Amino acid sequence: MDWLDGTDYGHYALCPAPYLASWNGTEADAVSSEHVGKVVLPGHGDVLTLGGQGLPVAYLDRVTTFVRWVACDDDAGLEDAVERAVHTHEWHDAFEITLGGPYVLLDSGALGAEVGEDEAIRVDVPPGRYRVQSLLIRPSTGEFFLERLTAV
Questions:
Q1: What is the spatial distance between Cα 75 and Cα 38, in angstroms, rounded to a whole number?
Q2: CA distances (Å), 25 to each of 43, 46, 62, in order?
Q3: pLDDT digits (tens, 9 = 90+) for 23-57
């Protein structure tokens, strides 16, 4: 899994790739301390935010799920644990969001023009309306927050 090591500003943002060079680091300031949220970026639509703590994050595209490291020693077996979690009924609905296209997951407070390849994760989301759902899993390696996008 490709991990971003953490965020200095407490939130990550799923920035539309065409907007990356213009991202000034204040677009997600209105987000509360919730662990998942959304803001509207005028002219570019909804922006998903992940935060509350500066936890390392990864994205599993085959299950459209963001994974955040909470308390663990390593990520051995994590992908299998996420695959199993996808089929549980324990997910908590957060909100609906409209997404689509290429995005860059980055520290929300960073200047987009200065974000390097190792400071972001490329995410492609098929256009559509999604329900954002959250789950805390506890595989044998520790605890992880999951936020998934489920087509509505």
A1: 27
A2: 17, 16, 29
A3: 999 998 887 666 899 999 999 999 999 986 778 89
Instruction: Give 32's DSSP letter.
Output: -
Q: Kindly report, residue by residue over 58-81, the tens digit of the pLDDT.
A: 999 999 999 988 877 777 778 888
Alpha-carbon span 84 to 89, nearest angstrom: 11
Q: Name the strands in the sheet holding 36-41, side by side, starting at the edge strand that comes first in the sequence.
A: 36-41, 45-51, 11-16, 92-107, 120-137, 142-151, 65-72, 57-60
Beta bridge partners, 59, equal: 66
- Of 58, 103, 97, 99, the residue nearest 81 (C-alpha): 58
User: Cβ neighbours of residue 110 under 8 Å, at least 6 residues apart?
Assistant: 8, 9, 23, 25, 119
- The DSSP 8-state label assigned to residue 76 in this structure reads T
Residues for the chain: how many in total?
Answer: 152
Contact 91, 134 (CB under 8 A): yes
Predicted TM-score of the model (pTM): 0.92
Alpha carbon 38 to its chain centroid, in Å, reads: 11
Residue type, 116: G
Q: What is the pLDDT of residue 32?
A: 66
Domain-wise residue ranges, the chain: 11-151
